[in-house]
């Protein structure tokens, strides 16, 4: 890798942090001090900027990392500056969007879970985030729902129902994290961020993510021909794979 122009691009949840938790100081220091001399650093997450900043210890994440792509790259930060953004509302149109949201809320009103909390549909610039349990649940409730969902397939079943209701709406559904799934226009998955890197002249783009199986929100970018994919299981595993990659 001598003299190569390399970008290491990271998912956040489950890759650099534990789910919805802040990055641990040892992981951050490893990236910024040990790995940075070997490559450029980038983040791409399905969450909005506020949530990514919370997990990465502050808004100055845009200065710590060379590229930050919230909402799968619908917002684009480069070297500390916002250089572009897109909007799902303009893309789909208000009439279709409301019909879609109405169906989702009606569906959620008719299912019973061990607990339900608040914020079931979160409107983001580039996507909708839908949570059957509600995003205002506690961490313990998150963990319980994740286990419940693995047994009962709540999110998977809901996605199938939405696809049946809206077969031609042109949306992609991606399960990520513990309690929710993302909905966005076809092609607006994490590969969307790669178009903003096409003129950066990287010899290699290494992507690190944990939800790389089909249906996971890292699947498309992990398998994209423009990236070299690395499936990880935890922040600690990410560190070990980086050490191996750069011979440390």
UniProtKB/TrEMBL annotation:
Function: Involved in the synthesis of the GDP-mannose and dolichol-phosphate-mannose required for a number of critical mannosyl transfer reactions.
Subunit structure comment from the entry: Homodimer.
Catalytic residues (positions): 11 (nucleophile), 13 (proton donor/acceptor)
GN (gene name): LOC108737246
Cellular localisation: Cytoplasm
Residues the record lists as binding alpha-D-mannose 1-phosphate: 20, 124, 135, 142, 180, 182
NCBIfam families: HAD-SF-IIB
Record-listed Mg(2+) binding positions: 11, 13, 210, 222, 224, 227
Originating organism: Agrilus planipennis
Keyword line: Cytoplasm, Isomerase, Magnesium, Metal-binding
CDD domains cross-referenced by the UniProt entry: HAD_PMM
Cofactor: Mg(2+)
Homology family: Belongs to the eukaryotic PMM family.
Annotated catalysed reactions: alpha-D-mannose 1-phosphate = D-mannose 6-phosphate
Enzyme Commission (EC) number: 5.4.2.8
Protein name (record): Phosphomannomutase
Any one biological process term the GO annotation gives: GDP-mannose biosynthetic process
Pathway: Nucleotide-sugar biosynthesis; GDP-alpha-D-mannose biosynthesis; alpha-D-mannose 1-phosphate from D-fructose 6-phosphate: step 2/2
GO MF terms, alphabetically ordered: metal ion binding; phosphomannomutase activity
One GO cellular component, as annotated: cytosol
């Amino acid at each position: 890798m001598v003299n190569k122009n390399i970008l290491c691009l990271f998912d956040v949840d489950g890759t650099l942090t534990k789910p919805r938790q802040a990055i641990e100081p040892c992981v951050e220091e490893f990236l910024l001090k040990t790995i940075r001399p070997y490559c450029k650093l980038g983040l791409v997450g399905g969450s909005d900027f506020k949530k990514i900043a919370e997990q990465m210890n502050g808004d100055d994440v845009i200065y710590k990392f060379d590229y930050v792509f919230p909402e799968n790259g619908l917002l684009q930060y480069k070297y500390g500056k916002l250089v572009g953004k897109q909007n799902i509302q303009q893309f789909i149109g208000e009439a279709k969007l409301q019909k879609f949201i109405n169906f989702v809320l009606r569906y959620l009103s008719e299912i019973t879970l061990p607990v339900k909390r608040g914020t079931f549909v979160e409107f983001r610039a580039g996507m909708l985030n839908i949570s059957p349990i509600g995003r205002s649940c506690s961490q313990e409730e998150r963990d319980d729902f994740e286990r419940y969902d693995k047994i009962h397939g709540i999110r998977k079943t809901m996605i199938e129902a939405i696809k049946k209701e809206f077969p031609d709406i042109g949306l992609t559904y991606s399960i990520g994290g513990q309690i929710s799934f993302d909905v966005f226009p076809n092609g607006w998955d994490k590969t969307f961020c790669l178009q903003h890197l096409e003129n950066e002249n990287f010899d290699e783009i290494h992507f690190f993510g944990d939800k790389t199986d089909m249906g996971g929100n890292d699947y498309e970018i992990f398998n994209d021909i423009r990236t070299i994919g690395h499936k990880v299981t935890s922040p600690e595993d990410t560190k070990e794979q980086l050490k191996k990659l750069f011979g440390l």
